[in-house]
Amino acid sequence: MQLHFSPSMRSITISSNNGFIDLMKIKVAACHISYRTLFHTILILAFLLPFVFILTALVTLEGVNKCSSLDCLGRRLGPRLLGRTDNSARLVKDFYNILNEVKTGEIPSSLNLPDSFDQMVSDMKDNKYDAKTFALMLKGMMEKFEKEIRESKFAELMNKHFAASSVPKGINCLSLRLTDEYSSNAHARKQLPPPELLPMLSDNSYHHFILSTDNILAASVVVASTVQSSQKPENIVFHVITDKKTYAAMHSWFALNPPSPAIVEVKGIHQFDWLTRENVPVLEAVESQNGVRDYYHGNHLLGANLSDTNPRKFASKLQARSPKYISLLNHIRIYIPELFPNLDKVVFLDDDVVVQRDLSPLWEIEMNGKVNGAVETCRGEDDWVMSKHLKNYFNFSHPLIAGHLDPDECAWAYGMNVFDLRTWRTSNIRETYHSWLKENLRSNMTMWKLGTLPPALIAFRGHVYPIDSSWHMLGLGYQNKTNVEDVKMAAVIHYNGQSKPWLEIGFEHLRPFWNKYVNYSNDFVRNCNIMDS
Ligand SMILES: *[C@@H]1O[C@H](CO)[C@@H](O)[C@H](O)[C@H]1NC(C)=O
Ligand SMILES: *[C@@H]1O[C@H](CO)[C@@H](O)[C@H](O)[C@H]1NC(C)=O
Ligand SMILES: *[C@@H]1O[C@H](CO)[C@@H](O)[C@H](O)[C@H]1NC(C)=O
Ligand SMILES: *[C@@H]1O[C@H](CO)[C@@H](O)[C@H](O)[C@H]1NC(C)=O
Ligand SMILES: *[C@@H]1O[C@H](CO)[C@@H](O)[C@H](O)[C@H]1NC(C)=O
């Protein structure tokens, strides 16, 4: 009987010459079974095959196989390893106790772990270990390997995070060239929409869409897909909101590529008189607080305690801290009623969606006095994206949260929302939003992670009208398990998550749904080397 560890510790082979257990190979792939599992496997083996295990496992570890008989092994290792040799049952019990003790105990920090199993084996040859030290070593090494694997997993997530938060060269180039065009080409500067269409911007017989982004390519896809999927594109008015630095480029794009017959207006946040310090005090505070800035730039993550988290939680933490989630462009949706004082009902779209169906029925929905028509995210096949309750967003150990919210209440999604602005103006949604943001700032952001959804989940409580989930399919930027048939059927698909279709880390099989609406024959797109991959 032999127990054989491969050098990388990825497999254990148990073989027996007498045909007892013929050949049993346990493959331990690093990503499937943790070394902790392996440790437990060995404990169980130790229990089942006690005496033989102890004696043979130690010396048949790679490279140490000088003794060919059990007797020899027993003589060499027995007394020293086990302390006494009176009878085997006793030995087994002792050793099992030792293993158990070690299993629950801490590894003493003074214990010098060998760097490799080879090292361990050669130390062992020199008879350095007693049984307890050996067991501790075994456990320590397994934990060390497990930690290394976890850390490399987290490093991978970090890299992915930075890949996800940086602006790809092509999109940056597009922005620069279009800004240039704005100053050199009168067509790029022409009034948008032309003066004769200005009244449509506040005409409630049109279908008004609002989009807030600094990503021109993404904006072009949202607008193009909405217009091309519409049965009455002449009925569409788009209000594209962008920041000051992107304004010229965004304006150039839509001036040079009007999605006619739809109407587009481009607004910079600097052009809204209403957006003053007095009206948005909290955002000022959020954006200027240095601590917060460090926080969302991820500096603290490098020193984070990785043993109390898991890759999934870590990924969502990273996501919540991306600069995007704290920018004014992202918070702006809470000010729509004030920014568009003449509009009654609008559809708000995120920049990472693609519209695949005519959305005009959304204006027909009778919302029964509710403000926000949204898809609920606590029911659905996708057990990650569609299993969101308030407990997923809030820290229920915080007394204010525990006192005000129900952890099992269903959450809903931003990305495609029908807003009844008339009803909204009669509510105190914005005040609630502000007061909770302030409260969270005061509690050092312990009530929820940074982001715009949690305060909105509170502010819109009682004002949400659930719409059918086929209107808005989420999760295309999270995982590649997304069901492609469902994607084809959905009215709006949403690449929420890190893997945006314009990034290299986007999922290849989901990209065509987005690429379809990029105009690759456009000179600016071509000259910036943005290509259909
Ligand atoms: C990390 O978290 C774990 C579990 O919460 C805790 O036992 C450990 O002491 C922490 N380590 C550090 C360095 O804070
Ligand atoms: C917030 O953090 C600061 C320093 O990081 C600390 O001095 C202060 O007591 C904290 N406040 C609360 C409410 O925890
Ligand atoms: C949750 O709230 C409690 C109580 O305020 C606080 O001690 C804890 O640190 C918070 N947790 C997180 C992750 O912020
Ligand atoms: C999903 O990812 C896995 C590995 O990450 C890959 O093997 C699989 O082919 C991918 N599935 C699709 C549909 O792309
Ligand atoms: C793509 O861009 C080109 C050049 O700007 C333009 O002529 C063409 O109409 C655009 N195609 C679509 C589908 O918008």
Automatic annotation (TrEMBL):
Predominantly, its location class is Golgi
Q: Which UniProt keywords apply?
A: Cell wall biogenesis/degradation, Glycosyltransferase, Golgi apparatus, Membrane, Transferase, Transmembrane, Transmembrane helix
Where exactly are the transmembrane stretches of this chain? Answer: 42-61
Q: What class of enzyme is it?
A: transferase
Enzyme Commission designation:
2.4.1.-
- Supply the Pfam families for this chain: Glyco_transf_8
Q: Record's superkingdom?
A: Eukaryota
Membrane topology listed for this record? Single-pass type II membrane protein
Record's GO cellular component terms: Golgi membrane
* Family recorded in the similarity comment: Belongs to the glycosyltransferase 8 family.
What PANTHER family does the record tag this protein with? Answer: GALACTURONOSYLTRANSFERASE 4-RELATED, HEXOSYLTRANSFERASE
What is the official name of this protein in its record?
Hexosyltransferase
| Organism of provenance | Vicia faba (Broad bean)
